[in-house]
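[SOLVED] Need 3D model of a two-part complex

Original post:
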Amino acid sequence: MAKEYHPENPELAEILDSFKNSRELGTMAVKSAHEAGKVIIGSFCQYAPMEIINAPGFCNFSLCGLNYDPPVPLAETKLPANLCPLIKSSYGNVLGDYCPFAHYADLVVGETTCDGKKKMYEMLAEMKPMYVIHLPNNPDWERSLEAWRDELEKFRKELETRFNVTITDDDLRRTIKISNEERRQQARIYELGKFDPPAITGMQMRSVMSSVYYLIDKEEKVQKMTHMVDLLEEAWREGKGPYKPDEHPPRILISGAAIEGVKEKTLEIIEDLGGAIVCYEGCCGISNMRRPIDETKDPMTALAEKYLDVPCAVMSPNQRRYDQFRDTLDEWKIDGVISVTVHSCLPFGIESHTLGKICEEKGVPFMHLLTDYSPGDEGQMRTRIEAFMEMLH
Amino acid sequence: MSDLKLPEKFDEYAEGRKNGFLRVKAAKEAGKKVVGIFCTFTPVEVFDAAGLISVGLCGMSDETTADAERDLPKNLCPLIKASYGFALTEKCPYTYWSDLIVGETTCDGKKKMYELLGQLKDVYTMNLPQGPDRDYAKKMWAHEIRLLIDVVEKKFGIRVTDEQIREAAIKRNEFRRLKVELMELLSMDPAPISGYDMYKFLESMGFQFTVDDSIAAVKKLLGELKEQITSQPAAAGTGRKRILVTGCPIGGVLDKVVGSIEANGGQVVCYENCGGIKAARCFVDTDAEDIVEAIADAYLQIGCAVMDPNNRRKENIPELIKEFRVEGVVDATLQACHTYMIETYWIRKICEEAGVPYMSLETDYSQSDKGQIDTRIAAFIETI
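Solution:
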């Protein structure tokens, strides 16, 4: 088993424990939202502007598929086998009606991020009401901001028309304020990894991040996260963190995308073998959390600017990611980087090459793990991680 | 011009490749500048207007795949790997001599490969909209074309006027019209030229140095074919099955796919691929007040699978099936080309609705599946 943190503080233990089973939390949350008559939006990416979705009180749930069987083999009856497992899993979960979030979704929102998702959405539209926001390829404001702001306006109008609601600028200012706070607290969770030794384990970061996602009441969510991080910092100061004060495990940065679906064979093994995952970079990592929305600007412009700046590998060029990656190596005092990408994910797969070069320049050991949701490569993953960890110790 | 150095390994190259290098070198010594391009989305009118040579750089063989795989994932489209590999190994004269390479954000693989290519060559990437139907798409693409004009002007220290661009567009339209006329000859039964030869000819147009040369070459072939049709009228009904080829760029797998179709009793009568009729029928409105917008508009009509949604292709294929009296559709995709692979779902449906047999083939630039593909194609043609 990977290292687990059992704090002596009963309140903290209870909070961490409540975040253990995100899947269950999510199923309960979507059911109760549905029963309360709330509009449910299914989305995939961090590009989905949750501030617009939340403004009229709609709930947003992620439809990213994380499991292999049964959705992936089912999806492969219609989609190419040689495709990212997250995309196949997401599609298969809708096709087989295995996903409670998709089941209850009144509208599914996608963005033209990667080729696979973009084209999968066209097929998903045969089964669910679907709206695709066109994300530009180039993040340069001069070239893309106007079109992107226009896309977000179109999306806002789509929600207004489809569900007969009005989304005012004041509604948006309110959701922007709370989501900024939400991201700030999420960043603090990753920042717990900056402590030496870390004040949280990497696996716990993941279970907390994927569970807080399902706290629909944002005020409650922010409060709970703030309190939890405060308690974790306190425990660390008292020398009661997950590591003994004189323990200095190798500090690992995880980079990449779609890691949630492969965490058992990658992340868990890394911590099992004595590494401490201190931060995540890439999709759902620190990058997006530290980019707040400008609260002083016109809200739609501020939203457009923020989301265009998300340094996902679908952006070309994606200099922002490389810059932030370098900074993260220094700020978290990283001893080794493991880039985890899934089969057929071309943007993250290709960018991994550049991350490796940056690490080489900075003298930080780097490894790229290419894996899939399908079973079979657990042994190979373990062997490679073992070799890497041995080199770090 | 002593700064025009040949690649280090030039002496080891085969005769044909050496000649390619020397041909471009001679043009450069005469003061010409070369722009390398990849896609049918590239507005070549800009280069024509600027007096630049534009050549296609899409890699067509697996000669350099292993080299490319040092920097790129193995599971990536062979065309992308080959294009990068030829740049890396300095084996392609056109890439090697390119003063500027212009790409577009089309598919994920190309878009990200261009970033790496930018470390080897001067690469400029245009920002293609994600779909043709948004009300801002034309404006956005026109803006990108204007940015490209700026890039070209700065890079080569020249001025490109709208009038020059309009003249270039008129000429390109003529070239398109002639190409379409040539391709339409295949609607005859029997077709006056094999699909294989037709493609080889169309492909060679990508390496002509001026559009005038291209126009002259098409006119010549058209004349010969028309002459042949009148002088030796063939009896109708050769029994060859009339095949439409669609999918990814076919150049790198032409022998495996088209060679096999035509060796097994088929005749390719239409290419819906990007080198074929799809882009050739996208004419520029040369009378438009804003010529750059007119060019943007024409290029956005190309029904490429990177577009979301790609209704143009879905509408076009049933029409082509009728026009060319197609009896079977072969959808050839390259390994890891997600957009075209996923669209096979729709094309299969469209063909089913049209009552035309359909086959999807996924292949790459290696020779390992040659026998298997040949067997599958032979069986397919037999069932028609």
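Edit: Strands of chain A lie at 40-43, 59-62, 107-111, 130-133, 251-256, 276-280, 336-342, 366-371.
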